[in-house]
């Protein structure tokens, strides 16, 4: 079933997919076992509470709730009610991320020294109730935490507002991880084309991946036939290999993982706790924008 404050939209979607349109969330929650909450961020907490009170499993779209404090409150409520609470960080379900995580964890190309991501596009058509850090950057915070296998210790952010006075529409974040590694995130709503890329600088190779076409490329170099009498002309040989990645639809994977966890009564693979951690990093980034200095991530 589906419900929306705009009843015409609700009925239109219901007709398209052959499901029932409900007049309110309360009515819908009486008839379902699990829901996906895709309202504006400001309404997430209220609707999520209703679902938990009805014992309904829920997937809450990013950035989850407005603050890490309310996100932690939601996690506690879900734990007490014994319902599965998933957070909608869909990029984690992109097969690219799983491949990068396995490469990093297995040290396939040595130590991961730094991770850099770029997520840029034009200004969104619909009105946002959050800035570009919470809207786009939080995806990369989640991915970098997951691939690195380490929490973020501090953030230094630079950015501002160019096309709007309501919130930041461009930002660059420097993350320092607990294990000493570094992360770089670039996000904006100023670029005419959509770019979604990530790269890992490793001790033995450079790994690049594209979220959109789900491609991955490994670059490494070696010195061949070194002449000790001519060290000013090093014969570097560059090797570039394109890695085959099994393509999958991230949204489909996200929903399947959520429903599987809910059916088994288990914690979601991308849980509410992940949302709390991601929000804390983004909150530190927003503080850094104002202070113009490095900010520690709240524990």
CATH architecture of the largest domain: 2-Layer Sandwich
> How many structural domains does the protein architecture include?
2
Our count of helices gives 8
The largest β sheet comes out as: 9 strands, mixed
Order of helices and strands: EHEHEHEHEHEHEEEEEEEHHE
* The CATH H-level homologous superfamily of the largest domain: Dihydrodipicolinate Reductase, domain 2
Shape type: globular
What is the share of helical residues? 25-40%
Task: Describe this entry's structure for a reader.
- This protein has 299 residues and is of the alpha/beta class.
- It is 35% helix and 27% strand.
- The strands form 3 sheets. A 9-stranded mixed beta sheet has the order 13-12-11-10-6-9-8-7-14.
- The model has no long low-confidence stretch (mean pLDDT 92).
- The protein has 8 helices and 14 strands.
- The longest helix is centred in the last third of the chain and has 20 residues, at 272-291.
- β11 and β12 form a beta hairpin.
- The protein starts with a strand and ends with a strand.
- The chain is globular and about 80 Å long.
- α3 (41-53) packs parallel to α4 (68-81) and α6 (132-148) crosses α8 (272-291).
- The chain has helices spanning 7-17, 25-29, 41-53, 68-81, 95-105, 132-148, 250-264, 272-291, and strands spanning 2-3, 21-22, 34-37, 57-61, 85-88, 112-120, 152-160, 170-177, 182-188, 195-202, 206-210, 215-223, 236-243, 295-296.
- It folds into 2 domains: 2-89 and 252-271, Rossmann fold (3-Layer(aba) Sandwich); 91-247 and 280-296, Dihydrodipicolinate Reductase, domain 2 (2-Layer Sandwich), CATH 3.30.360.10.
């Amino acid at each position: 079933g589906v419900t929306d404050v705009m009843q015409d939209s609700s009925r239109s979607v219901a007709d398209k997919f052959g499901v029932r349109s409900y007049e309110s969330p309360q009515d819908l929650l009486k008839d379902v076992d699990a829901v996906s909450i895709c309202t504006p961020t400001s309404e997430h907490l209220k609707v999520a509470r209703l679902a938990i009170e009805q014992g309904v499993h829920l997937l809450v779209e990013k950035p989850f709730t407005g603050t890490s404090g309310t996100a932690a409150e939601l996690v506690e409520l879900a734990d007490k009610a014994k319902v599965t609470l998933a957070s909608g960080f869909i990029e984690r379900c992109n097969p690219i991320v799983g491949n990068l995580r396995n490469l990093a964890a297995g040290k396939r190309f040595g130590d991961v020294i730094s991770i850099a991501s770029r997520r840029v596009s034009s200004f969104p058509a619909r009105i946002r109730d959050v800035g570009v850090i919470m809207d786009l950057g939080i995806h990369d915070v989640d991915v970098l935490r997951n691939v690195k296998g380490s929490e973020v210790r501090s953030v230094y952010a630079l950015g501002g507002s160019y096309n709007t006075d309501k919130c930041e529409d461009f930002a660059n974040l420097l993350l320092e991880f607990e294990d000493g590694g570094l992360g770089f995130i670039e996000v904006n709503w100023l670029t005419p084309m959509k770019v979604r890329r990530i790269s890992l600088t490793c001790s033995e190779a450079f790994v690049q991946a594209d979220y959109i076409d789900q491609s991955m490329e490994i670059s490494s170099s070696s010195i061949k036939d070194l002449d000790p009498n001519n060290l000013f002309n090093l014969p570097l040989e560059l090797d570039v290999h394109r890695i085959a990645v099994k393509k999958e639809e991230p949204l489909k994977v996200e929903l399947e993982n959520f429903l599987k966890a809910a059916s088994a009564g288990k914690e979601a693979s991308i849980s509410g706790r992940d949302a709390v951690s991601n929000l804390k990093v983004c909150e530190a980034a927003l503080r850094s924008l104002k202070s113009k200095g490095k900010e520690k991530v709240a524990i």
